[in-house]
């Protein structure tokens, strides 16, 4: 019989990995909570119609659809056959599949807000940490099941939210002992570039081209845009803009000189100025950096956009977000503005792992192994163990009476730092032997002292 | 546009519910850890072949299957059409669906153990708390997505595990402030009844009939079994067995008198005696009760079986488990015995909710709302808030400058217990006003004192 396999692009997480991941999740969660964000959990699958058409044609293709149950019911035969023909034609049909796995956390959140709109206290701040599924081709660092970690606020246009997002990124990555750049830009300044080229229709070509700047260099971006019809004059503006450098204040001044006559740029610059006046931002542990080359592909952003890059490990962004105007419009509830940020937990994990910065204390393995010796003695030992457990110590007794060797080996393999030996001899003297396997030291103590014993690690 | 809906049998969990559920999960988790169990997480979907045939015909029908992507590729046309014909005939086919959502946590665990068999330190103790999906008809208390919470040990036949399971149930339900009966029985004593009737083939009819005893009464059980061909003599034995009462010790003695001549009953009785000799079991907070009418439908149990009933709320079992012989046999790895228990988290939730026993401290909502007043003052307030947050206080500032009324209303709706008022006047005097909305009391304090302020709740 062949060994069973895992579906491509999915993973088992063993105890060590689960604890490391929990450390990341709980660090993020506690920051979210300190900023007034509250948890929401939505179902793993949604009605297919809730998801379809929200992620572009490419995204639609990557949605995992769930087969309806009971397709072989005789009454349904013709209906199902027709539906199947649709599927074969690349469409989807309710008669074959009416549910699909969550593709991100944003659309389920939008669905939730649209449904409960009347009852929510606005501004409504929620965070959500749940897996999502995408039928992407698996590759290094890209999985078909992975967690997203989002915080969003809706019903508020205040830039206070942007300031808090910067602090939240600062707090999370500082708590995780990582060094990052918090890069910030504004979609309205990109809109100003588009206007300088001739109008809104330039927004997508410009953001797409700028998005590649780091990879392909300025010359390539130029030839791409020129070939698409950008004038040399307009390109000069874009180039001057892309070459802006200096402190955040110097960058703002430079941008003002290049684009300050265009209203959308004025708005972006005013927003930047308002954000930077918050004195608390001068105390960040991480680097906050206006990055005019930041574009972010997603078209629904309308204001500030964020991206986080590790300063220690070469890797794509490990977080991102931005402001959007109309979260729930596609569900018939217009006029709900908002902003949100998200953490790339799998990449954050890889960064911490590469830097070996997971604290050993995140593991919660067994601290103490009680040896299993003579039957009578094992009952005494078990009783003691129960008292230790009640006081919070993680303890085990070896499952059966066995030679010392075998029991020591079990402790070693499971990296249990302490063993307690309590045999017939110790029962007589009301004692037990505590051995620290890390140092090799052992001592005989009274059983009643055991509860006060401090087990490190 | 119609409001978007949730798929039948699924739920959103708002913040209050998430926190209450987390309280249950973390209580169970910390007990699991204290007993040496370690977390495992497996993917939400498995290869369909891993799941099919493991849950009986009825179970197979309830598995959610995932439609393969790219079905409309022209090269696949004939293959997919053939596969579809199979689906219409009630079979499943890899060319249409090769993955399916997890139906329980046991089979993924078995798959994991079979795959990693050589590398695991035995006995291997794992716990797993993840959602599972079943295409069951939704009804009150039954959902299509729900969490299971399992702890299993494999590679050990020791009854120490059963003793620990009893303690784990005791610890969890005591920590949750619930009163329960921990009911225990043994599949071998049911096997002895079957032998008394004529042989193994009676095992299923007898367990099925006994399973209904509480619902239908003794007479109905009798007529069902007699109609199936159980002799009057054999029924007398069964009846005497089902009517056993008294203390656990008295029950064992009575069972010995009725069935003691049958080897499988002897084994069950020996197991009970060995378990009950553990002195720690006399200190349980919950009631441990041998219940000879306990059958548990699942056929894979071979030794002790467990079931938990609330003593305060009428409801089905809120936990269960037992010993099995051959976890990984169907994956080609024979000879892996084990035992496990599980918690019915949704029902436990309902019990605690009905009894109003969720501690209010499980909620982690905002503790302090800073009013948003004059622009200058709000910057000072924001700075102070950042210091509070760094010390762990969950705080928010109202997102924009607004009338007192509106800001108070926001605090009330969100049940934020404290507001801090810091306007132009307070900036001048370096002070701020702290108002406790629960008591209505307010006091003006120096801003530097705020960091030492104790915010209750």
Describe the overall structure:
- Two copies of one chain form a homodimer.
- The first copy, chain A, has 457 residues and is an alpha+beta fold.
- Chain A is 39% helix and 18% strand.
- The first copy, chain A, has 17 helices and 16 strands.
- Chain A has helices at 15-34, 48-51, 56-61, 77-88, 106-115, 160-175, 187-197, 203-211, 213-216, 218-227, 232-242, 248-259, 263-276, 345-354, 375-390, 404-413, 424-428; strands at 38-39, 45-47, 65-66, 99-101, 124-133, 145-154, 180-186, 287-290, 301-310, 319-324, 338-343, 368-370, 395-397, 418-421, 431-436, 442-446.
- An eight-stranded mixed β-sheet of chain A has the order 1-5-6-11-10-9-7-8. In chain A, strands 13-12-14-15-16 form a five-stranded mixed β-sheet. Chain A has a three-stranded antiparallel β-sheet with strand order 2-4-3.
- In chain A, α1 runs antiparallel to α6 (160-175), α8 (203-211) runs antiparallel to α10 (218-227) and α12 (248-259) packs antiparallel against α13.
- The relative contact order of chain A is 0.10.
- At the A-B interface, α1, β1, β2, β3 and α4 of A face α1, β1, β2, β3 and α4 of B.
């Amino acid at each position: 019989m062949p060994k069973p396999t895992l579906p491509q692009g999915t993973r088992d997480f063993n105890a060590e990995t689960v604890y490391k991941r929990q450390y990341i999740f709980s660090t993020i969660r506690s920051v979210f909570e300190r900023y007034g964000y509250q948890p929401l959990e939505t179902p793993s699958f949604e009605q297919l119609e809730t998801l379809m058409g929200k992620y572009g044609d490419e995204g639609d293709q990557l949605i995992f659809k769930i087969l309806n149950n009971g397709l072989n019911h005789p009454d349904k035969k013709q209906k199902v056959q027709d539906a199947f023909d649709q599927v074969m034609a690349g469409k989807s049909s309710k008669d074959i599949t009416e549910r699909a796995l969550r593709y991100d956390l944003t659309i389920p959140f939008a669905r939730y807000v649209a449904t409960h709109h009347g009852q929510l206290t606005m501004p409504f701040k929620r965070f959500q940490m749940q897996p999502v599924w995408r039928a992407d081709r698996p590759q290094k660092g890209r999985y078909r099941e992975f967690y997203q970690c989002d915080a969003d606020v809706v019903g508020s246009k205040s830039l206070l939210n942007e300031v808090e997002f910067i602090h939240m990124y600062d707090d999370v990555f500082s708590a995780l002992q990582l060094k990052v750049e918090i890069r910030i830009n504004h979609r309205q300044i990109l809109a100003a570039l588009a206007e300088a080229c001739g109008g809104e229709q330039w927004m997508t070509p410009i953001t797409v081209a700028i998005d590649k700047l780091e990879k392909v260099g300025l010359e390539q971006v130029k030839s791409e845009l020129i070939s698409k019809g950008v004038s040399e004059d307009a390109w000069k503006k874009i180039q001057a803009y892309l070459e802006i450098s200096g402190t955040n204040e110097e960058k703002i001044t430079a941008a003002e000189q290049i684009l300050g006559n265009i209203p959308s740029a004025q708005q972006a610059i005013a927003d930047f100025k308002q954000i930077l006046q918050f004195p608390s931002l001068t105390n960040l542990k991480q680097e906050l950096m206006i990055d005019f080359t930041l574009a972010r592909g997603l078209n629904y952003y309308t204001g500030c956009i964020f991206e986080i890059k590790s300063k220690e490990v070469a890797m794509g962004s490990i977080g991102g977000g931005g402001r959007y105007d109309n979260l729930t419009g596609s569900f018939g509830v217009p006029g709900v503005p908002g902003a949100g940020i998200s953490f790339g937990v799998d990449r954050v994990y890889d960064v911490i792992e590469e830097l070996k910065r997971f604290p050993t204390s995140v593991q919660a393995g067994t601290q103490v192994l009680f040896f299993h010796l003579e039957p009578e003695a094992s009952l005494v030992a078990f009783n003691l163990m129960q008292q230790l457990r009640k006081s919070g110590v993680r303890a085990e007794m070896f499952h059966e009476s066995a030679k010392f060797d075998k029991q020591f080996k079990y402790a070693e393999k499971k990296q249990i730092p302490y063993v307690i030996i309590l045999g017939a001899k110790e029962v007589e003297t009301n004692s037990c032997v505590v051995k620290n396997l890390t140092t090799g030291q052992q001592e005989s103590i009274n059983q009643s002292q055991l509860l006060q014993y401090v087990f490190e690690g």
